[in-house]
Amino acid sequence: MLRLLNVQGKQIEPYVDALGALRITVxxxxxxxxxxxxxxxxxxxxxxxEGERSLAVLAFHGDAVVGATTCMPMADEGPEFQAPxxxxxxxxxxxxxxxxxxxxxxYRGRGIGRQFFKHxxxxxxxxxxxxxxxxxxDRPPDHPSRPDNYRPLDEFWKARGYQKQPHLQALFRWKxxxxxEESAKTLTFWTKELK
Length: 195
Prior knowledge:
Elements: E1 3-8, H1 16-27, H2 38-44, H3 46-49, E2 55-61, E3 64-73, H4 79-87, E4 95-103, H5 112-126, E5 131-137, H6 154-159, E6 163-174, E7 183-193
Parallel strand pairs: 4-5
Antiparallel strand pairs: 1-2, 2-3, 3-4, 5-7, 6-7
């Protein structure tokens, strides 16, 4: 049985290393192929520990963090997340940015992903935000690292009420497992009106 724990702002600090290690493990797989380090993760996650309006939902199996999801107001996020929305004329003060939603493979298929979305959307509504947005990396169907059994999450996201917004894209850089150095990747945003 998995246990979920909501932590906000500075309450996230004791879990930063566990969250960072989980991100490194899960995002190493396709489609992100992320070759990360705990040092980078600690720096990346500061925006959540320093933000008073941020939320992390942690999934525990016993004492081990086996899944996590995060969110925060888009207005508190970095400019690289805000830019596509500002350029398209959106009011970022009304948007909640949904960060990662990650779960170790052996715990998938138990409804935790749906609960992660519910917790984040409820948090957004509690802050008075009326839209949620997240982004996902774009990969071609014939990508050489795509596993034969890979199933994109598009249908799962659509079932949660999210719509892909091809005009809202951002470039992010990270080092892939087979790369010598970082390269730019395109990520496309998905959005949903919250009620």
